[in-house]
Amino acid sequence: MPCLNLSTNVSLDGVDTSAILSETTKTVAKLIGKPEAYVMIVLKGSVPMSFGGTEQPAAYGELVSIGGLNPDVNKKLSAAIASILETKLSVPKSRFFLKFYDTKVHRTQEYAQCLHALHQQ
Fold first, then answer.
1. Positions marked catalytic
2. Domains along the chain?
3. Angle at the Cα of 22 (from 84 to 20), degrees rounded to 5?
4. For residues 27 and 31, what is the distance between their CA atoms, to the nearest angstrom?
5. Tens-of-pLDDT digits for all 121 residues of the chain?
6. pTM of structure
């Protein structure tokens, strides 16, 4: 089951979080190749966060999946999620960081890859 944890310093008061969760679920499912019914999205707002020494709108995410991740998919996921955050929460793509964990590898050899949305443009 893919699980995407997103944290942002942006307040979610008055934000249509259902639209964010729905769009993100569809995006993750499509790009990873898993049914939407298996995708979990966790969205936390108003998290104290600094990026580049400022507290301007920013976001951090971790996506864990059993298979379905690879460098090409990760680039597409990073760009798509950054776009959602920019559109829905006004978080610039350059202030979003996403970390990937593919647990298909042996437990002792966890594969982790970090991508920064800025480098995906």
1. 2
2. 3-120 (3.30.429.10)
3. 40
4. 6
5. 899 999 999 999 999 999 999 999 999 999 999 999 999 999 999 999 999 999 999 999 999 999 999 999 999 999 999 999 999 999 999 999 999 999 875 444 444 444 444 444 4
6. 0.85
